Known about the structure:
Belongs to the histone deacetylase family. The chain is α/β, with parallel strands linked by helices. The chain is built from twelve helices and eight strands.
Amino acid sequence: MHYLGIMPEAERDTSCGLHLYWDEAVTAYDFGPGHPMDPTRLALTMRLVEAFGLTTAPGVTVRSAPPAGDSTLGLVHSAEYIEAVRRVAADPTTTDLRHGLGTADNWAFAAQHTASALIAGQSVAAAEAVWNGETPHAVNFAGGLHHAMPAGASGFCVYNDPALAIARLLELGAERVAYVDVDVHHGDGVQQAFWDDPRVLTVSIHEHPSTLFPETGWSTETGGPDAPGSAANLPLHAGTGDSGWLRAFHALVPELLAAFRPQVLVSQHGADTHVEDPLAHLAVTVDAQRMIAESMHELAHRYAEGRWIATGGGGYAVVDVVPRAWTHLVATAAGHPIDPAAETPESWRAEVYRRTRQQAPLRMTDGAGPHWRDFQESGYDPADRLDQAILAARRAVYPHHGLLP
């Protein structure tokens, strides 16, 4: 593989043009001091992207889009809910528990509507640009707010930008959209939005609902009566590390995409699967997260004519994990992958210390060399909990797609 700074321009894959959606104002999505969803993680990611020269790399365009308007937000969210967000934002001392606002997870803040609509606007614009052929790939790492429901905030998420991007693709004429979510938490809001829509396949690989919010995402959740097989879920037991996570992904996702034949791939790359994440219990490294980004990229080219929209998501190790994981995502989508052994730029390390008084990681790797046993080649081990989970997911959804578990 050619890494950033090594690959001659003549050898670069020109099919990997990228629109990177960014607006400094997205950092106003800030629940306040002490909340895990610290917008510093977004700023530090963009600074690391810039420090590696990705914003000026060939084929990369940095764009900002306007906030999503009410008609766009209404593709997923109710008018009553949108008004409730505005009302609570106007007076953050109030709460609206019926709409999940001002709760223990979703604190009220003054920019709640404007910043949320701005993040949503970036993902919707990314969908439009990819569908219209302006770019094959688009990334909005500020997005990925996958828990928001049609009529309520949930799990730090106010407006569900991945669902809105998918809804916009359908409005533009897409007939098959695949959504793959590798956040440690189940992608429940996106699944709910398209539960009974056969045009959308939602796939979520996440920590087991018995040990983590939102306590959904069982393998038996496979879609509504008018869309059987439109949802696939693979819950993993706490403590699953790189090899198990990668084995699970490759045992489920490629075959489903091959059968579904999506016209567009939308992915969510929450970095909270990491072993250092304070809110969850998987044991994944940045190296495996980078490998999943590479796999999403390859799958988009193999099954979706290269059309790929990638978002961020969760991730609460603000300095050590999120910026590196999402910079690798941007670099991969741009066709300019970063050598995992590369040192983080000194200017970025100084910025990390200035903002947080923490020491930044020195390299773009955790020093892991992830590998996994291929499920098809190695076979099923009935005594292995991971393989039991994989087989349960395949048995639940594969028959709906004409596949053998």
